[in-house]
Amino acid sequence: MNGVHAMLVHFPLAFWALATLMILAGVFLSGRFAELSRAGLLPVLVFSLLGAVAGLVSGWLVWPAEANLYSPLARNHILMAIWSLAIYSSITLLIWRFGALMFQGTQRWALVVLALAGGLLFAITGTLGGHLAGSPTHFSQLLAAFGWTVYETFYVPDAVLVALLLLAIIAAGVGLTAKTGDKG
Ligand code: HEM
């Protein structure tokens, strides 16, 4: 099954990379290429989510669940895969619900931040997958330089979780009270 997982995960990774580039092009460029990027983004995102579901399901079939959850490296890989899926699902919902509006005004910055965060997370997911398959890369050394040894379980201190929750509540409050027609 590891061959199937290795093959299937290229779909979400490629679609997420493409979606991230399309968002950056749609926000920062003008002209035909930017227009096409904005218009074609939703189908690319939908395909990325389908690919991610295939990656997640096949991932659980590579090793027994006990082995997956016993290894800190595999736990980190699963955590980052789920975070990546959460971020690109949020982007998909926003583009599906608000479409071209997301490329205007202040909301376009939310899209850029989400796309860059998603890009970082899926890069880490793939890097850790490579580690599991026996092909570590220099990217892990970069993560180590920022204080995270990928062989140890990644955890977020409780204080950071509380800060994230507060930020989410504030962001939801700002979002609910903001005018959706803002051209900022
Ligand atoms: C969107 C979700 C996922 C992505 C993008 C992803 C990505 C990857 C990549 C790029 C590799 C390296 C493949 C290779 O070069 O051979 C890999 C390997 C691996 N992944 Fe995932 N993965 C995902 C989800 C999961 C999940 C949910 C699990 C476990 C529950 C998992 C378990 C593994 C294992 C055990 C390996 C090592 C396979 C081997 O020994 O060859 N993955 N993954």
From TrEMBL:
Q: Which InterPro entries match?
A: DUF2231_TM
**Protein name (Swiss-Prot/TrEMBL):** DUF2231 domain-containing protein
For this UniProt record, give its keywords in alphabetical order, as a comma-separated list. Answer: Membrane, Transmembrane, Transmembrane helix
Q: Where is the DUF2231 domain?
A: 4-133
Indicate the transmembrane segments per the record: 6-29, 41-63, 78-98, 110-134, 154-178
Matching entries from Pfam families are given as: DUF2231
Q: Which organism is it from?
A: Marinospirillum alkaliphilum DSM 21637
